[in-house]
Amino acid sequence: MEQNKPALKTLSVLLIVVALIFSIEKKFLVRELRGESISKYESIKWVNQVALLIDDFEGLTDTTSLKNASFFGYGNAHISIDSTQNDKNTIASKNCVKVQWGGAYNYGGWGKGVGKNVELNTAKDHFNFRVFVPKTNADTTILKLMLEEDDNFNGTLDTDKDDSWFYKIPLYSTGKWEMVSIPLKDFTDNNPNAGDGILNISRKSGLHTVIIAFENVERFTPEHKWYFDFICFTKEKISE
Ligand SMILES: [Ca+2]
Ligand SMILES: [Ca+2]
Ligand SMILES: [Ca+2]
Ligand SMILES: [Ca+2]
């Protein structure tokens, strides 16, 4: 029984995440044109590279509005809107999301039920976000980025039929905002037995969920926090 504990924990985490996603999943995905809703960032030279803005958190004011925008935190990751940490970069604007660690779980992450059909060029497009890791975090953070797509075009997440993709990335406690930009072609199939094994988010088969999970949680304490902003897909690699 004792040696089954890690496996049981992993299974229960997966079940909780799936339950969360189902609870926020929209019945039908919304069609989104590439490059919508970025007009106020026209002064940023790479902004015409944005294919899909997942969120800049500017329209959100509190935890309730985060929840209403289909954001969720699970395990020890608690999310809220923050307006104190942003730098003077135009891309930051006013608000970002703060993740604070706390609780008795040995896992945690956060994400958004995106529910959008958009044509992504998975050979060239990148997944991006800004992130600020305070120096007080000290330890490196390992993130597991996850994208879940709708392979069978039915508008719901079917864990036995829809692909899930992941990419792991270390974050260092630099105490400054940085842009993370990952090629979609570098994501790995998270469920080889489900989906068609091709990252093919399109007008037909959309994007259900974006999840940012924390991997090396053993050393995290309630003092650990992270800030994220401007989550988007772009046509090219982005650097500030
Ligand atoms: Ca922002
Ligand atoms: Ca599906
Ligand atoms: Ca798969
Ligand atoms: Ca697929």
Order of helices and strands: HEEHEEEEEEEEEEE
Q: Looking at this structure, what is the CATH superfamily?
A: Galactose-binding lectin
Helix coverage percent? 10-25%
Q: How many structural units, i.e. domains? A: 1
CATH class: Mainly Beta
Task: Specify the CATH architecture.
Answer: Sandwich
Bound molecules: calcium ion
Q: Percent of residues in beta strands?
A: 35-45%
Alpha carbon gyration radius: 17 Å
Number of strands: 13
- How is the main sheet built? 7 strands, mixed
Query: Number of DSSP helices?
Result: 2
Tell me the structural class. Answer: mainly beta
CATH-assigned fold name: Jelly Rolls
Task: Output mean pLDDT.
Answer: 90
Low-confidence stretches: none
Approximate shape: globular
Task: Measure the end-to-end span.
Answer: 50 Å
Key structural traits:
about 240 residues, six-stranded antiparallel β-sheet, single chain, Jelly Rolls, binds calcium ion, seven-stranded mixed β-sheet, 2 helices, mainly beta
Describe this structure in words.
The protein is globular, with a radius of gyration of 17 Å. The chain is mostly beta strands and 240 residues long. The longest helix is centred in the first third of the chain and has 20 residues, at 5-24. Strands 1, 3, 6, 8, 9, 11 and 12 form a 7-stranded mixed beta sheet that branches. Strands 2, 4, 5, 7, 10 and 13 form a 6-stranded antiparallel beta sheet that branches. The protein has helices at 5-24, 63-68; strands spanning 30-31, 50-55, 71-75, 77-82, 96-101, 108-117, 126-132, 141-149, 164-171, 177-183, 188-189, 207-214, 225-234. The model has no long low-confidence stretch (mean pLDDT 90). It has 2 helices and 13 strands; from the N terminus they run H-E-E-H-E-E-E-E-E-E-E-E-E-E-E. It has a single domain, classed as Jelly Rolls (Sandwich). The protein is 11% helix and 36% strand. The site of one calcium ion (CA) has 8 residues, from loops.
